[in-house]
């Protein structure tokens, strides 16, 4: 179609799904247009995934876009159809010239037209015009017409120049009737048409078997996509829930850290307050003792005997020292035992976390979609001739994917690269796993319980 100086190609109005001219065209949000029925059926197949993609640019949409008829594009397509039909009617039949890969008419002179039929008797190809005598004249009634082909000479016996109409099962080749009395005498032969029908039936059976396999594999692929979608959704939900659990654990540890810090400060304040009160009492007693000592010293240095004797009679006995509580005289008094208890708590927590994390990692590794193949499992529709291919397929499935072969993994974290030394494990009386290094510390703490 050529209008307003613009040349359009028919392929521009084809649907990329059905490869035909657009019918009831609709345009999706990414800008591509399709037949209304084609894009609806295409999206119906992915409806269970909840994600709808464009067949051309693969852009995804969620939720499913609503579709509306593209009125302008529909009008252009209708005009294109009408104009294309008019151009086809205006093109004469004798102007169907042969292109580079087409079979040329053997009768045409000058520029040859495209051949539509080949005659196996005449060994020539004809266009629409020159093939008409084969349909109209009784002379050509027994001639056999086939679709135009460039391999006419291959249908003729090179030795006898006759049509290859017989198939020899012994030598597995096509021969002519004269070959039956020559080098193919006594061989197992059959008409070529009968052999073709037999082969066609075999091909039909193979095609049916192939279709059954395709349907089975499509079902497997659909189940696998559904499993991937379900596992992805479960992984996302589990990740969020585990994040919440670990956040709560971190908040609990932070609270315990705050409580320990406040406990140490409160104990420090209480003990120092008691010590300061006792120190004040001791200093007061020292002051009274010093005052009494000064009075005695002054009295001992007086020269007035009368005053000295009178003062001695009125002299009060020295104050008696009060009984003091026990005082720790260790100059290295510290909160060291508290730090030891904190360290023990850290080790115990690490052991509990280690055993718990091993269980978590094992549970994570148990979640699989593609497991090892069952030995001897094959499709029910496998043909006898497909044994080798089925065996090769099984051998291919047995091979583990890269990175999951027989390389060692860390039992603490199977998702990390293995270290040079793998620790061994033992079970504590509480059912948690302990490493070889932590087991001895655990036994020592159990043999020497903490003081309350």
TrEMBL record:
Residues 439-452 have a biased composition (Basic residues). The keyword Zinc-finger applies. Residues 152-192 form the B box-type domain. GO terms for molecular function: zinc ion binding. Residues 265-302 form a coiled coil. Residues 15-58 form the RING-type domain. This is FinTRIM family, member 67.
């Amino acid at each position: 179609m050529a209008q307003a100086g613009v040349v359009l190609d028919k392929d521009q109005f084809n649907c990329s799904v059905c490869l035909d001219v657009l019918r009831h065209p609709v345009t999706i949000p990414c800008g591509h247009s399709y037949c209304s029925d084609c894009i609806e059926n295409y999206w119906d197949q992915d409806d269970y995934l909840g994600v709808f993609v464009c067949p051309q640019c693969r852009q995804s949409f969620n939720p499913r876009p609503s579709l509306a008829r593209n009125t302008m594009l529909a009008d252009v397509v209708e005009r294109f159809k009408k104009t294309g039909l008019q151009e086809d009617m205006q093109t004469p039949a004798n102007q169907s010239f042969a292109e580079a890969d087409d079979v040329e008419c053997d009768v045409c002179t000058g520029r040859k037209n495209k051949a539509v039929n080949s005659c196996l008797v005449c060994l020539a190809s004809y266009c629409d015009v020159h093939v008409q005598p084969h349909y109209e004249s009784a002379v050509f009634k027994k001639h056999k017409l086939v679709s135009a082909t460039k391999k006419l000479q291959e249908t003729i016996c090179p030795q006898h120049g006759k049509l290859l109409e017989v198939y020899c099962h012994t030598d597995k080749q096509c021969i002519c009737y004269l070959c039956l009395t020559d080098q193919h005498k006594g061989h197992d032969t059959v008409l070529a048409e009968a052999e073709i029908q037999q082969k066609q039936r075999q091909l039909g059976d193979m095609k049916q078997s192939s279709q059954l396999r395709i349907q089975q594999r499509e079902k497997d692929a659909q189940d696998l996509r559904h499993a991937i979608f379900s596992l992805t959704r479960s992984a996302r939900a589990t990740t969020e829930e585990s994040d919440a659990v670990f956040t709560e654990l971190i908040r609990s540890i932070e609270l315990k850290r705050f409580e320990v810090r406040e406990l140490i400060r409160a104990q420090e304040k209480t003990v120092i307050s008691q010590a300061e009160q006792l120190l004040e009492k001791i200093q007061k007693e020292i002051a009274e003792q010093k005052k009494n000592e000064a009075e005695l010293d002054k009295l001992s240095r007086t020269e007035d005997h009368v005053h000295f004797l009178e003062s001695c009679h009125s002299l009060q006995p020295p104050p008696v020292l009060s009984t003091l509580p026990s005082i720790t005289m260790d100059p290295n008094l510290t909160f060291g035992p508290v730090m030891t208890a904190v360290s023990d708590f850290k080790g115990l927590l690490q052991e509990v976390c280690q055993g718990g994390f091993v269980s978590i990692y094992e549970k994570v590794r148990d979640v699989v979609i593609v497991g090892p193949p069952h030995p001897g499992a094959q499709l029910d529709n496998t043909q006898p001739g497909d044994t080798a291919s089925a065996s090769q397929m099984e051998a291919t499935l047995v091979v583990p994917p890269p990175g999951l072969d027989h390389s060692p993994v860390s039992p603490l974290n199977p998702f990390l690269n293995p270290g040079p030394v793998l620790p061994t494990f033992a079970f504590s009386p509480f059912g948690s796993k302990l490493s070889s290094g932590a087991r001895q510390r655990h036994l020592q703490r159990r043999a020497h319980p903490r003081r309350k």
